[in-house]
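Lecture 7 notes: from sequence to structure.
We start with the chain below.
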Amino acid sequence: MANTTKLTTLPGGLRVATCEMPHAQTAAMGIWASVGGRHEPARLNGISHFIEHMLFKGTGKRSAKRIMQEIEGVGGDMNAYTSEERTCYYATAAEEFFPRVCDVLCDIYTDPKFSGRDIERERGVIAEEIQMYRDEPSSQVQELLNATFWPGHPLGRPITGTVETVGALGRGDFLEYRASHYHAASTVVSAAGKISHEEVVGRVARRLSALESGRRPSAKSAPKPATSPRLKVEARDVQQTQVAMAMAAPGHKDEDRFAYHLMHVILGGNASSRLFQELREKRGLCYSVSTHPLTLDDGGALNISAGLDRKNIERSLRLILDEFARLREFPVGPAELKRAKEFSVGSSRMSLERSSSQNMRLGSSVLVHGKIVDPESVHEKIRAVTTDDVREVARRVLDPAGIALALVGPSPDETMLARVLGL
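Predicted structure tokens for the same chain:
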């Protein structure tokens, strides 16, 4: 039997999306709130991520320990994440335990305690998390890059917040922010695996009936792409220099997004990519180099990161810029384009054999497009991309004039970096 997807919108605006996978032995569920780092005012930077932590700290009927025991005690897995535009709480377990998974997730979503003692304890935990990322050059360079690429904008702030903003948040801030953003209109429930759509809708309708209708949150528009390069460096006494750069790129609904995805794969999306082959395999200049697309409702960014010895930075940056020029000026060969297409379609199909991946696809699809997008329709559009399409999106994205570059490493040579960027 084939997988079947369905979407139901309940009277209050809550949306429930499912993928019935008759041959699966597991069931996965997610509760998604369409709120993330970009919705926060500066004073509340990090509050979405802090709330994510607090929902695991206990409810009216479950302690923090019991929340995890109920899922892990049956071999399941539960976690959450906060991004720029969403917060997601998700769990997977053997299919016979789906009622428990649903009950626990709905409980933490609707009835978190937010006790003063738990808030103070978790404030310390998050401060340690912030310091951990700060101590990791590969993480710190991304924070510097975001602040440089989106200066003065919520997207340029750390999703975790800072030690200062997290330290200033009070219980009233959490209760007010959650009440303003965690409601039916901003919530999507997804479920996949050996489940029944009708059963999921019934359980969710009963357990989340107390959610207010509300309105979907709005966010400050992403800034227009820069027209001149930007540079930020941080001297750090480490063995390896971390380099990251970003350029403006298509968003979730942009017509160029399929060609853009293939351009990313060709440039740095896997071990067959041009950057990996040129910098690592042919020249041994680095251990890791890769591209990472960030897509948002109103735009996005193509991030490129590499770990380098200081003496190899200039040569590596020039090679990266050379690959930009090649993609902008010359058509991708048919064999290279075919490999990128087969990689994209094949990896997608393999991931969707898992209920957890189907669950993530459903939630993301409904949040972004308001409907369940058939993955095969996406695969068809990927296969339809031409070499001209890739070159056109490369000309749009891989423009050296709009590059933001961040570097964390020993004795950074800002003069050389400025020269390479044309500053």
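Points to note: The CA atoms of residues 331 and 388 lie 7 Å apart. The domain at 230-421 is CATH 3.30.830.10 (Cytochrome Bc1 Complex; Chain A, domain 1).
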